[in-house]
Design a protein that fits this description.
The structure is a single chain. This protein is about 35% helix and about 15% strand. The longest helix has 23 residues, at about 200-225. By secondary structure, the protein is of the alpha/beta class. The chain has one domain. Helix 3 links the parallel strand 3 and strand 4. It has helices at about 15-30, 55-65, 85-90, 105-115, 145-150, 165, 195, 200-225, 235-240, and strands spanning about 30-35, 45-50, 70-75, 95-100, 120-125, 155-160, 180-185. The protein is globular. The chain has a seven-stranded mixed β-sheet with strand order 1-7-6-2-5-3-4, sandwiched between helices. Pfam families: Acyltransferase. This is 1-acyl-sn-glycerol-3-phosphate acyltransferases. InterPro entries: Plipid/glycerol_acylTrfase. GO terms for molecular function: 1-acylglycerol-3-phosphate O-acyltransferase activity.
Length: about 250
């Protein structure tokens, strides 16, 4: 697992409350198999790009970034902020509300601002929990790539597996015992150097997104110990929504 770094950044009250509650809970219900955590930059703005398999993912991602000396910020669903107390807590913890109906423009601007200010921003590149029946990453969205191209900050890919055993996708019932092993493998920064000098056209953004997703899928294959799929699952081709619970019927 490697030697953890000292915490270098100021934490607000919300982070300390979360750590005092969440970390002991995760330690009691999961075993951590971190690989490559030292590749998370000690300082400076960066984007941590992960695959998405469970609603508990933000907690496990916060766990590894905390262990390696960084405080993470997230793009979170705007609906979570509507609750007076939860919204206050999330804002105090530095989380970024995403309003899908507004195409995420404000969230993008806030994420760029955070990265330029030297913060670590976590992005689940698929935009939602994967709809792939086998749990492999599905086709990615452009958020992480656009933030990287706008800031020039490194994109650190992470492949993860195991969190879905603790809390299955779209389930409200966790399975805490026996303890589940959460595996995370951190890769080298995705090379986007040749794209930074280009105009962020649709083609350039798509190329950057593809590179980020390829890096993540390779890492997921390693933590799963299985060959990667030849093609990523595409919800549109499969006739399912890329967001929300695929088991719920669509409203006509």
């Amino acid at each position: 697992m490697g030697k953890y770094r000292n915490l270098k950044h100021k934490r607000g009250w919300a982070w300390w409350i979360a750590v005092s509650i969440v970390k002991p809970t995760l330690l009691a219900t999961t075993k951590q198999d971190w690989d490559g955590g030292d590749k998370i930059p000690e300082t400076g703005g960066c984007i941590l790009a992960l695959n998405h398999i469970s609603h508990i993912d933000p907690l496990t991602a916060a766990h590894i970034t905390w262990d390696y000396g960084r405080q993470s910020r997230y793009l979170a669903k705007a609906g979570l902020f509507k609750n007076k107390y939860l919204g206050r807590f999330l804002r105090a913890a530095g989380q970024i509300p995403v309003e899908r109906s507004a195409a995420g423009a404000r969230a993008f601007d806030e994420a760029v601002k955070a990265v330029n200010a030297g913060e670590l921003v976590v992005v689940y590149v698929e935009g939602s929990i994967t709809k792939d029946p086998a749990g492999w990453p599905m086709v990615g969205k452009s958020g992480a790539a656009r933030i990287a191209l706008a800031t020039g900050a490194p994109v650190i890919p992470v492949g993860q597996w195991g969190a879905q055993e603790l809390l299955p996708a779209y389930s409200a019932k966790p399975h805490p015992f026996p303890r589940k092993t959460v595996r995370m493998k951190v890769g080298d920064p995705v090379d986007l150097s040749d794209l930074l000098a280009e105009e962020p056209t649709t083609k350039v953004v798509a190329e950057a997104t593809g590179r980020i997703m390829n890096a993540i899928v390779d890492l997921v294959a390693e933590v799963r110990g299985e060959p990667r799929p030849a093609e990523l699952f595409d919800p549109r081709k499969a006739g399912v929504s890329s967001t929300g619970n695929p088991n719920k019927k669509r409203k006509k």
